[in-house]
Amino acid sequence: MLGISQDWEGGIEDFVEEANQRLAEVLPLDRASRPKDEVNARLVRHYTTEGLLPAPRREGREARYGRLHLLSLLALRRLMADGLSGKALISALTERSEEDLARLARNGNIGLEIVLRSGAPPGNPALTYLSSLREQVSPRLMAFAPLLRAAPELPREEAAEDRSRRRSASQSVVRVQVTRGLVVELSETFRWPKSEQARLELLEALWASLVDARQASSSASEDDT
């Protein structure tokens, strides 16, 4: 998960160093390189006291942190960058599996809604927060939302003719500029999501692809220097 070894473990200083390296990979582009978004030992202890991070294992007087703690911290900072705080933040992180935490760290609010819809009770603070975003959606997270509204269904006769025409004609591709510097290509084989869950999963996949592209670009730039 996120390339973190199953048996990763370290003291507080190792934990902080590893977390700061990985935060640059999961935070949004406008936050990834800002020094003030780095964590330190005091901040980690504060998060633990507030119940936002699980308590570390103890070996004598030394606190030992593992992969669960690292995933929890990455998810915490990613959700904070996306605007969560207070009770919404606590409910988003409480009793999450490592798989859920990795999803939250990668995809922030998009991943959170998918996680919560699998079993969050009505009135869950985190789900309430996400619902409030629907009227003022974050452009960074939901830039693709206009593309994901289900296409209007054609009459059956017209749809059948269209399918026949597609089989005999060469495939066409529609290019859609989502925002400056970002273009999406839609081919005739693309299947429009028909449910809220399917739209969220598509958003998550798109965002994950952007993160992968950013990391690949960064690696290529480092190789050139």
TrEMBL record:
SUPFAM superfamilies with a match to the protein in the record: Putative DNA-binding domain
Top-level taxon: Bacteria
GO molecular function, one term: DNA binding
Domain HTH merR-type, first and last residues per copy: 38-88
InterPro entries: DNA-bd_dom_put_sf, MerR-type_HTH_dom
Pfam families: MerR_1
Any GO BP: regulation of DNA-templated transcription
Protein's recorded name: MerR family transcriptional regulator
